[in-house]
Write a structure and sequence with these properties.
The chain contains nine helices and no strands. By secondary structure, the protein is mainly alpha-helical. The chain folds into two domains: about 45 residues; about 200 residues, no CATH class. Helix 6 runs parallel beside helix 9 and helix 7 runs antiparallel to helix 9. The longest helix has about 60 residues.
């Protein structure tokens, strides 16, 4: 009788145990979708942050701190800064000299005497320096050299000095326009070399091993052209304006020489 009751109790316990297992499984089942729901939320965040970082741009070159790339960038930066500096300084100096030529036409040739005309010109004027040289030469002729030749030599010497002042910075602009593309080309060659080394080390031409160095090479080429093209334009503009100014200076010196010779012959 006792064994019969034990059998009934054991059967009841087994039935209640199997009934509890499905209930616990149902309670634990919703936890998995909750964990899965967080994964899609993190993925868009990572995708949204990825486009903000460009591993193949100019900032990546700076962050790598490669000595060769740094040297090329600094050299191109110095060239560009020097080109813009000489553009502004030469342009304003040329504008000042052109204004002096107009002032010389209005004041010098309308004066009553040479000394009065010289005093009417600004002290830093190229035309005043030419006039003073001509007047001084007309007063110091020698018997071995004719008056005309002496005045011509003095005026030509002063003209050459004025031309030397106008040429300041022109050589730098011409050098930058010629050299900057080759400096950028050197950066290009260096970037391609780094790409080949990366391929050799990795043993396969994967895009991540090639894109970075090749992108750096193209950036160096672009910067070299960006520096060279304005320098060539500035060079041509400055040379053309210098030519116009020197024509005005030579015309003024020629008129002054004619006046001095005519005055001396009277």
């Amino acid at each position: 009788m006792i064994s019969k009751h034990l059998t009934i109790v054991a059967a009841f316990a087994l039935m209640t145990g199997f009934a509890a297992v499905p209930a616990m499984a149902q309670d634990a089942a919703p936890a998995a979708p909750a964990a899965e729901s967080t994964a899609p939320a993190a993925a868009p965040a990572a995708k949204a942050a990825a486009p903000n970082e460009n591993p193949y741009g100019l900032m990546d070159i700076i962050h790598k701190k490669n000595p060769v790339s740094y040297s090329v960038l600094i050299l191109l930066l110095v060239m560009s800064a020097g080109s813009w500096y000489y553009l502004f300084t030469r342009y304003f100096d040329q504008g000042r000299i052109i204004a002096q030529s107009k002032l010389a036409e209005k004041r010098f040739w309308t004066s009553g005497s040479l000394s009065e005309g010289v005093e009417k010109l600004p002290k830093n004027s190229i035309f005043r320096a030419v006039a003073e040289a001509g007047v001084k030469a007309s007063e110091g002729g020698t018997s071995l050299v004719g008056l005309n030749d002496w005045i011509a030599m003095s005026l030509n010497r002063q003209i050459e000095d004025a031309n030397g002042q106008l040429q300041a910075g022109v050589t730098f602009l011409g050098t930058v326009g010629s050299v900057a593309p080759f400096v950028g080309l050197f950066g290009t060659v260096w970037g391609i070399l780094q790409a080949l080394i990366s391929i050799g080390v990795a043993g396969q031409a994967s895009i991540d091993k090639v894109a970075g160095p090749v992108g750096e090479a193209l950036i160096m080429t672009a910067i070299g052209l960006f520096v060279a093209v304005p320098a060539v334009m500035f060079y041509n503009m400055i040379v053309r304006r210098n030519r116009v100014i020197m024509d005005k200076v030579r015309a003024f010196a020629g008129d002054l020489q004619t006046y001095l010779i005519t005055k001396g012959s009277k």
